[in-house]
Every structure is written in structure tokens, then in C-alpha cells.
Hints:
This protein is α+β, with helices and mostly antiparallel strands. It has helices at residues 9-26, 52-68, 72-80, 89-92, 123-141; strands at 31-36, 41-46, 103-108, 111-119. The protein contains five helices and four strands; from the N terminus they run H-E-E-H-H-H-E-E-H.
Amino acid sequence: MRSVPLLELADARRIAAAAQAEADRRGATVTVALVDSGGHPLLLERRDGASPSSAVAALGKARMAALNGKPTADQEQAINGPRPALLQLACLLGQPAAAMAGGVPLLHNGHCLGAIGISGMTPEVDAAIAAAGVAAFAADATP
Length: 143
């Protein structure tokens, strides 16, 4: 039997706060979504001015990253290049999921504990805001 750590709401709030701080720094109107390892929502924050569709997209990006344990930017690149068949993965998961840049898994000791998804700006800006959240998670998760 294995023991696996779990994200708590307090963790999600710290991660989201770091992402929101980066969004503030960039003047970005985005949605920040955090999910657990099963892709279930823990927290969703849509900034004033962010598109309503960004809420759905951020959650889908986070879900895809959590269920695969891989950044969605890598999956998007594979779909646009040598692996277009990966488009089918979103349907197979049985819940809305998106392989677009901005979703990053939260990994700790070889376990995917969940993911952050950002949507509302360019892929590069979404990814940078997600990276700020991941950095906060990594700093807290270090023993």
C-alpha cells in the first residue's frame, strides 16, 4: 500500500495567490483554476475582465495536466506536430479537458497531486502565470 499526499484548499489558495501576483505584474486578465489529481476542481478565480470562456478553458487545461501528469503545452506541441491522434485524449477522459498551453501538473516526490490551469491571454503569458503558481507550490513542498 502507498501513502500519497493530497492538495488541500490552503495549498490551492497559496498557489493561486502566486499566480494572481504574476498576473497583476503582467496586467493579465485571466482565470486561474486548480484541480486535484483526479481533475476535480479545488479553486477557480476569474479576474475582473477575463472572458467567461477562460473559466472553462482554465479548468480544462488544469484537468488535462492533472490526468496526464504533463504540461499541456507539451501536448499541444505534439498535437500540432507528430501526434495529432492525441486530440482524441480529451474525449477519452470523459470530462472536459484541453491540450492547450497553460496547464501544468503539480508534482511532488513522483506523484501528481493536481494541476494549475491558466487561460485568458497568449499561450506564453498563460504558461508564465502557471509557472509562478508551480514555483510557489514547489517552494512549499520542499522539505
